[in-house]
């Protein structure tokens, strides 16, 4: 095999990445989920590993392979993802690309919920999941660099700026998820990088290219941070 002799600016850096959806159980056979494919988060994990980082990917249930050169942990629920991420601290940087379910059913039935004639559908009592990014963004072991995502169908930059402040992130990768056949599940992405310094609009490119550019930006930012 050819030796990869490119420089490794992230050698010695531990970076946590979350990716994919979470599955929130209703009963043994049913769950609440979303359309996240994990493609963007997995591509970011792979790109960071190519730059030499020790990448710990915490992935929800996805239909794609574990990225090469990355230590991947598989979880189902938001609570499991949060526990794994917190166990991985401290780290130099963390990238929260997962589409974490905002809510879960308060209870998960031990037995399959049956249709009962005349009773109608079950009323699911939903409760809010913990915000993993916000927890890490305000953690006593906060990584020097915290990157979040914002999936929005309207007011993209305004909502991303609000998330930047509220969640304690350094960057928000803002994503317009409104268009039909768009970013969710697709191979291309058009993002804006929102930080305190302003908004950087990137042209539409493949998710792999977004990942490569984001990894380079993270390497650039971590250069000034002493190990
Ligand atoms: N996030 C998280 N844990 C959650 C919800 C979101 O870590 N329980 C992270 C996502 O991984 C992403 C960022 O927070 O990096 C923003 O997610 P998003 O769904 O866009 O924002 P929310 O704060 O959940 O707000 P809303 O869905 O109402 O827009
Ligand atoms: Ca959300």
Question: Any descriptors?
Answer:
single chain, 8-stranded mixed β-sheet, 5 helices, binds calcium ion, two-stranded antiparallel sheet, binds cytidine-5'-triphosphate, 26% helix, 227 residues, globular, alpha/beta
How would you describe what is shown here?
It comes from Mesorhizobium ventifaucium. GO terms for molecular function: phosphopantothenate--cysteine ligase activity; phosphopantothenoylcysteine decarboxylase activity. Residues 10-220 form the DNA/pantothenate metabolism flavoprotein C-terminal domain. Pathway: Cofactor biosynthesis; coenzyme A biosynthesis; CoA from (R)-pantothenate: step 3/5; Cofactor biosynthesis; coenzyme A biosynthesis; CoA from (R)-pantothenate: step 2/5. With 227 residues, the protein is α/β, with parallel strands linked by helices. It contains five helices and 14 strands. The protein has helices at 39-50, 78-88, 132-137, 156-167, 207-223; strands at residues 14-19, 24-27, 30-32, 54-59, 71-74, 93-96, 103-105, 126-128, 145-152, 171-176, 188-189, 191-195, 198-201, 205-206. Helix 1 (39-50) packs across helix 5. The model has no long low-confidence stretch (mean pLDDT 94). Bound molecules: cytidine-5'-triphosphate and calcium ion (CA).
